[in-house]
Amino acid sequence: MFKRTKGYYNSDYTIQDFYEWYCATASGPISKDLFKRVFKKFIERMMIEIIYNSAEMDMGNSLGILRIRDKEYKIELNEEGRVDKKKLIPNWGKTLKKWKVLYKDIDPNEWHNIKNKPIIYHENEHSDQTLKQWFWDRSAVELKNGHHYKFNATRYWDRLLAKVNKESNVSYYR
Asked: Which of 60, 24, 66, 67 minimizes the C-alpha distance to 143?
C-alpha cells in the first residue's frame, strides 16, 4: 500500500569506516567479521541497558552522553479554543484503519486527493502524557560545529522503546 522512502538522515560513517580506522591504529587487528560481531553486540548491549535500565552512554572523547529523556506531552489550545494539532503526534496505525473503513470504496493510492481526512493522534495516557525520546546531551561536546550533528536511532530501537514504554513505563532522565 504505502512504501517507505529513503531516509532524510543517512549515516555518514559505517562499520566499514570504523574497521578501517581500527586497522590503521591497532597493532595486530582482528578479522573484519569478528570486529563486526563485537561491534554489533556492544551497541546492542548498550541500547538495551539504556532502554530497560535508564542507563546513559558516555561516548568518550568529549562527544557527550546518549540517554532517553521524558518530555511532557501537553495538549494545548490555539487562539480559537481548539486543540493545537501542530504539537500532536499522529497515530498512523489507527488512522489508516479508520481510513480503510471510511474510504473502503476508494483506492488507497487515491487517498492523498481527499481533503480534510480525519487523523487520530496519540494521547499517551499510558505514560501520564510524557514522550520518551532519544537524547544526545551535547552540553560538554568539544567537537567543532558539534551542534550540526544529530543522533537518530534506527526504527528497531525506536519500536523497542515504545514497546517497553507501553509495558513497564520506565522512568527516564527529565
From this structure: 60
**How far apart (Å, rounded) are the C-alpha atoms in residues 106 and 103?**
5
d(CA 96, CA 85): 18
Which three cell numbers mark 28?
Answer: 595486530
Q: Domain check: are 147 and 167 in the same one?
A: yes
Residues 46, 23, single domain; the answer is: yes
Per-residue pLDDT of the chain (174 residues; tens, 9 = 90+): 556 666 666 667 788 888 999 999 999 899 999 999 999 999 999 999 999 998 999 887 778 889 998 877 777 787 888 877 777 788 888 899 999 898 888 888 888 888 888 888 877 666 666 778 898 888 877 777 777 778 888 889 999 998 888 888 777 777
Give me the domain span that covers residue 54: 12-73+128-174
Residue 88 lies in a domain: yes
44 lies in the same domain as 64: yes
Cα 47 from chain centroid?
12
Q: How many domains does the chain have?
A: 2
